[in-house]
């Protein structure tokens, strides 16, 4: 078997499309011959650095996005239900502290990435499925506990998330995404023949599969493979 191709997923839990992309690439990580790397970053920094305008600030785009997310949630089998006030969640509260917490969890984790995967998923679930807060310390604690972290691990992650080390790490990840050409999330970077190939959005997996020499088996590859 050829060596695994490294695939980096840059994401922020403020982005519902990132949740969709996250779940799909997680389903394929053991189907495709890839080495998946989670790269939590700050979408606000990406939008500012790239000079981009959030779709939620364009009325027609926002109206389309609401319908689009409903269709995609059903297609991808992700329990995504927009919060009552998406504008407040995305633009007033934001996720800078949440992404620092995710970065802290990743920094602490040794020998794998299950904790950062589960914590990210629980934070997405709180915003985009349960319409709950992810700006308060108790919210991070609840999400982390559901993700399987111990009370001691949660306490350490909360403390670490406010450190300069973690703030700098999240900033570096965001800058690296911008250096790759990011203008929004999710962004996947596939390293093919020593070169990075960028794919933006949650609807580029078929094209991405072709780029890395794999097959797209639909949003639920396990069930698709069983029918082959």
Structure description:
With 228 residues, the protein is α+β, with helices and mostly antiparallel strands. The chain has a single domain, classed as 3-Layer(aba) Sandwich (Glutaredoxin). It is 55% helix and 11% strand. It contains eleven helices and four strands, in the order βαβααααααααββαα. Strands 2-1-3-4 form a four-stranded mixed beta sheet, with helices on both faces. β1 (5-11), α1 and β2 form a beta-alpha-beta unit. α5 (96-108) packs across α8, α5 packs across α9 and α6 packs across α7 (137-146). The chain is globular. 34% of the residues are buried. The model has no long low-confidence stretch (mean pLDDT 93).
- Class computed from helices, strands and strand pairing: alpha+beta
Structural domain count: 1
**Highest CATH level, the class:** Alpha Beta
SS strand fraction: 5-15%
Round the mean pLDDT to the nearest integer and report it: 93
The CA-CA distance between the termini, in Å, is 21 Å
Principal-axes geometry comes out as globular
Query: Using only CA atoms, what is the Rg?
Result: 17 Å
CATH fold type: Glutaredoxin
Give the name of the CATH architecture.
3-Layer(aba) Sandwich
**What is the topology, as strand order, of the major beta sheet?**
2-1-3-4
Major beta sheet summary:
4 strands, mixed
Number of helices in the DSSP assignment: 11
Helix-residue proportion: 55-70%
- The H-level CATH homologous superfamily, spelled out, is Glutaredoxin
């Amino acid at each position: 078997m050829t060596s695994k191709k490294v695939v980096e997923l840059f994401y922020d839990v403020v982005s519902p499309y990132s949740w969709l992309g996250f779940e799909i690439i997680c389903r394929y990580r053991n189907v495709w011959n890839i080495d998946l790397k989670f790269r939590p970053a700050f979408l606000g920094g990406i939008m500012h650095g790239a000079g981009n305008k959030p779709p939620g600030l364009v009325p027609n785009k926002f109206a389309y996005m609401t319908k689009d997310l409903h269709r995609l949630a059903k297609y991808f089998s992700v329990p995504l239900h927009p919060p009552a006030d998406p504008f407040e969640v995305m633009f007033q509260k934001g996720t800078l502290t949440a992404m620092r917490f995710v970065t802290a969890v990743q920094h602490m984790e040794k020998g794998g990435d299950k904790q950062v995967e589960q914590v990210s998923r629980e934070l997405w679930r709180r915003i985009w499925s349960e319409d709950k807060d992810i700006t308060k310390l108790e919210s991070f604690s609840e999400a982390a506990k559901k993700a399987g972290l111990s009370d001691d691990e949660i306490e350490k992650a909360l403390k670490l998330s406010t450190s300069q080390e973690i703030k700098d790490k999240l900033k570096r990840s965001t800058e690296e995404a911008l250096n790759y050409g990011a203008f929004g999330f999710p962004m996947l970077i596939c390293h093919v023949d020593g070169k990075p190939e960028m794919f933006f959005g949650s609807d580029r997996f078929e094209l991405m599969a072709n780029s890395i020499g794999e097959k797209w088996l639909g949003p639920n590859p396990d069930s698709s493979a069983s029918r082959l």
